[in-house]
Amino acid sequence: MTSLNLFSDEESRQPIPLGPQAVLLRGYALPLLSEALTALNLVTSASPFRHMLTPGGRKMSVAVTNCGSLGWVSDSRGYRYARIDPLTNAPWPAMPYSFLRLARTAAETAGFSGFAPDACLINRYLPGARLSLHQDQDERDFSAPIVSVSLGMSATFLFGGLKRNEPARRALLQHGDVVVWGGADRLRYHGILPIKGPGHPELGEQRINFTFRKAG
Ligand code: SIN
Ligand code: FE2
Fold first, then answer.
1. Label partner for 44 (CA 20 to 30 A): which of 4, 126, 191, 210?
2. Whose CA is nearest to atom 7 of ligand 1?
3. Is residue 25 in contact with ligand 1, taking CB distance under 6 Å?
4. Res 12: pLDDT
């Protein structure tokens, strides 16, 4: 049989620069996914997905949960990190080792060695859900990068500048893709356009995103 793949795995896995210190690693998570999906089920059975309220009182279209010692929460008091899940009144589930390893090796590949995330925000988008342009700035120090893993349905990622009104570049994020941004790009505005298009063969009509951060 002849192969129709024109590129070797090596060539198709070259990092795609999105900024001076931001890269898209296509398919980077694919070899690690079955382990990560099993771990995801354990996390969400302890701390289920829920729709949080924005400080302005609106329900977010994205459903979220967390694992790790700190979890990102939003309510009428604002955005912050908390050790206790307000839904279960228990600590967030521990970060699975498979998640930690994925985040650490992706960061390393992007040039950020020694990444030790203590927070993993897990976002679930059903068709129509979106995340408007924002900066990740609730973390205590900005020297660590952000590592973002995409699973399931594809999404258009907006990657803007350091000011909200700067033009944003668009990148299609697909199942298994990882984006890492840090250093000079750490505070870039970013967001997700409303999810649409075909469901995913394994995950169905949803997109799941893991965002790893050093929060505390
Ligand atoms: C986020 O910015 O928290 C999530 C981005 C994404 O879903 O890709
Ligand atoms: Fe973000």
1. 191
2. 209
3. no
4. 61
User: Whole-angstrom distance between the N-terminal and C-terminal Cα of the chain?
Assistant: 53
Q: What ranges in 47-166 are assigned the alpha helix state H?
A: 97-109
pLDDT tens digits for range 125-167: 999 999 999 999 999 989 999 999 999 999 999 999 999 999 9
> Distance, CA 7 to ligand 2 centroid (Å)?
32
The letter for the amino acid at 19 is G
Domain of residue 24, CATH code: 2.60.120.590
Q: List, for the chain, all residue ranges whose pLDDT scores fall below the cut of 70.
A: 1-12
Answer yes or no: are the C-beta atoms of 192 and 156 closer than 8 Å.
yes
* Total tally of structural domains belonging to the chain: 1
Ligand 1 pocket, residue 211 CB under 6 Å: yes
Q: Is 159 exposed, middle or buried (0-12, 13-18, 19+ CB in 10 A)?
A: buried
CB under 8 Å to 122, separation ≥6 — which residues? 40, 43, 44, 49, 64, 65, 66, 67, 208, 209, 210, 211
Q: Is residue 171 helix, strand or coil?
A: strand
For ligand 2, the distance from its centroid to the CA atom of residue 211, given in whole angstroms, is: 7
